[in-house]
Amino acid sequence: MKNIFSRLKLNVLSLALLLTYAFNVKAQIIANTEIKYYRSIFTEENGKIKSIGNTDFEYYKSIFPEENGKIKSIGDKKFEYYKSIFPEENGKIKSVGDKKIEYFRSIFPEENGKVKSIGDMPIEYYRSIFPEEDGKIKSIGNVTIEYYRSIFPEENGKIKSIGGAQIEYYRSIFPEENGKLKSITGKTGSDFDFSPTELYYFILNANLK
């Protein structure tokens, strides 16, 4: 049930909840994962998720556009957003609970505006001559990420390994599976509580930003 709840959150809240996972803000294990939505006169929350199981969601109703309509809290975890003169961070998540998020203000486009650290966990990005990895996450904390540089388009540029965890993709005559994730095996060796699958989807999502 915990895995089902995790996948729901990954799908519906994208980076916000992925960041939440990165700080080890784990939702409680609940028997009921029913999703409810706001029916509200306030446009900032109307139609958005109100609760998943026993976990409630709140949204900012604010005069500040940097936070208005964005997630204010998930359960007891509060979200804050930057109100900044720097476009690299303005309007982005500043903190979740007691974990602060920082962003690169850099001359290098491969990292500029991207997440620099989550709490005390640093994140680095590739500055590379290889397009398969350039600008993508290089490391999270003590875990190094590698990408395929391959003659096979089904895997080229995709995540190859996360620390000690190896990732494979289908090379298949069937389009329904060709190029899709086949397996994640092994352990990342990370010093934080994050499964290989959770970390895979965090990296996948972050690399799209």
Automatic annotation (TrEMBL):
- What organism is listed for this UniProt entry? Pedobacter roseus
This chain's protein is named GLPGLI family protein
Its keywords, alphabetically, are: Signal
Where in the sequence is the signal peptide annotated? 1-27
